[in-house]
UniProtKB/TrEMBL annotation:
<keyword id="KW-0378">Hydrolase</keyword>
<dbReference type="InterPro" id="IPR011059">
    <property type="entry name" value="Metal-dep_hydrolase_composite"/>
</dbReference>
<dbReference type="InterPro" id="IPR057744">
    <property type="entry name" value="OTAase-like"/>
</dbReference>
<dbReference type="GO" id="GO:0016810">
    <property type="term" value="F:hydrolase activity, acting on carbon-nitrogen (but not peptide) bonds"/>
</dbReference>
<dbReference type="Pfam" id="PF01979">
    <property type="entry name" value="Amidohydro_1"/>
</dbReference>
<dbReference type="InterPro" id="IPR051781">
    <property type="entry name" value="Metallo-dep_Hydrolase"/>
</dbReference>
<protein>
    <submittedName>
        <fullName>Amidohydrolase</fullName>
    </submittedName>
</protein>
<dbReference type="InterPro" id="IPR032466">
    <property type="entry name" value="Metal_Hydrolase"/>
</dbReference>
<dbReference type="InterPro" id="IPR006680">
    <property type="entry name" value="Amidohydro-rel"/>
</dbReference>
<feature type="domain" description="Amidohydrolase-related">
    <location>
        <begin position="55"/>
        <end position="393"/>
    </location>
</feature>
Length: 413
């Protein structure tokens, strides 16, 4: 059982108040935040950590990761032995927790076995929310066979290193969605547009028929959950949101009218700008296929503008990164990129309260309030004044608490 800890003299910043709250006291016990007060909290059995005005934030939430992506070439990644992929995933997730991310949403690849490994303490990492394998049509964004590979697409469905599975036709899509939920998926992911990393689908391609998308959404709702969709083009986004998709991943090429539709339907956007910057500078040297390199700028150049369009429409935005292979180390740089066009408090909300809303865990994570999970990070300095304090592989985070357990403590308390 985790110990009782009192954080004293903290500046709280969870996105709910524009400037945060100063001189607060927070008590955690049993993995839960028990008390938040503007006066000292007394508990003779608790460890007291005097933050001396440092910033106390909820553990960060990344809503778009692929923890099984050990390589940037996802076709080759799918062929790796499961054991090797699992070891890579453990290393990747440990790095995420070291950077202050205490919850991540995997949007293609991770299985329930990884969730169990984390819960049983076999590996160290953030809370893992999964969709299982992403659903793709033949030739879609999770079909990495290329033009000359004629194997049956089913070979990748059972491989840990594969991002997705192929299904065609309404009944096959229903069966695939049901099967992922059976295996532990907490939401469903569909590849509803062409993609950068996949070999045979230009960005403008539309994934799945409208009937297929509608059927997948129905199956998710029947299971009391939602659908997240890989989407770039304005046409694809409008089509998917009309079909009932709740979580719009990427959204680089969105236009104002479709952003208004998202707002009207209550859809949430999860932009992932850092991955395109990383792929542009490092992708080719790390083995990203040339066919994919050629597509990067099709979406990269509209990234910041898409944030402005979404903000103008009042669309809720969550934090996502979508990094692959050795580029996972750039995860926290998403904060700085977004900060070029968005107020810092909005960038922080994306990785706290907004992210919790998207995942369906509002009140449990992404906030500092009684009853919330004791996922907390301490920041040396003021992230509202300098978002780069959240970068540097956790260099400015002297303390990280995950589910009430100290993962890192450099405060000597």
């Amino acid at each position: 059982m985790s110990e009782s800890i009192i954080f004293a003299n903290a500046r709280l910043l969870d996105g709910r108040e524009p400037e945060g709250e100063h001189d607060r006291f927070v008590r955690v016990e049993g993995g839960v935040i028990r008390e938040v007060s503007d006066r000292p909290i007394r508990d003779a059995g608790a460890r007291v950590v005097d933050l001396k005005g440092r910033t106390l934030m909820p553990g960060l939430i990344d809503c778009h990761v692929h923890v099984i992506a050990a390589m940037v070439d996802l076709g080759r990644n799918a062929l790796l032995p499961d054991a090797l992929v699992a070891y890579h995933a453990a290393r990747i997730m440990r790095g995420m927790l070291d950077r202050g991310f205490t919850t991540v949403r995997d949007v293609g690849g991770a299985t329930h076995a990884l969730v169990e490994a984390l819960e049983q303490g076999l590996i160290t990492g953030p809370r893992l929310v999964i969709c299982g394998k992403a659903l793709s049509q033949t030739g879609g964004h999770a079909d990495f066979r290329g033009r000359y590979d004629h194997r049956d697409a089913g070979y990748q469905t059972l491989r840990l290193g594969a991002m997705g599975r192929v299904c065609d036709g309404v009944e096959a899509c229903r069966a695939a969605a049901r099967d992922e939920i059976r295996q532990g998926a907490q939401f469903i992911k569909v590849m509803a547009n062409g993609g950068v990393a996949s070999p045979t689908d230009p960005i403008a391609f539309l994934g799945f028929s409208t009937d297929e998308l509608t059927a997948i959404v129905e199956e998710a709702r029947n299971a009391q959950t939602y659908v997240a969709a890989h989407l770039y083009t304005d046409e694809a986004i409008a089509r998917a949101v009309t079909a009932g998709v709740r979580s719009v991943e990427h959204a680089n090429l969105i236009e104002a009218k479709t952003a208004a539709l998202m707002k009207e339907r209550g859809a949430i956007a999860c932009p992932t700008l850092v991955t395109y910057e990383a792929l542009k500078s490092e992708g080719a040297s790390l083995g990203f296929p040339q066919t994919s390199v050629d597509k990067i700028d099709d979406v990269r150049l509209r990234g910041l503008e898409s944030l402005e369009i979404l903000r103008a429409a009042g669309v809720t935005m969550a934090f996502g990164t979508d990094l692959l292979g050795e580029m996972h180390r750039h995860q926290s740089e998403e904060f700085v990129i977004r900060g070029r066009v968005l107020p810092a408090i909005e960038v922080i909300r994306a990785a706290t309260v907004n992210a919790a809303e998207l995942i369906g865990l509002s009140g449990r994570i992404g906030t500092i309030a009684p009853g919330a999970e004791a996922d907390l990070i301490v920041v040396d300095g003021d992230p509202l004044a300098d978002l780069s304090l959240l970068t540097g592989q956790g260099r400015h985070l002297p303390l990280i608490l995950a589910r009430g357990r100290l993962h890192k403590n450099e405060l000597n308390a």
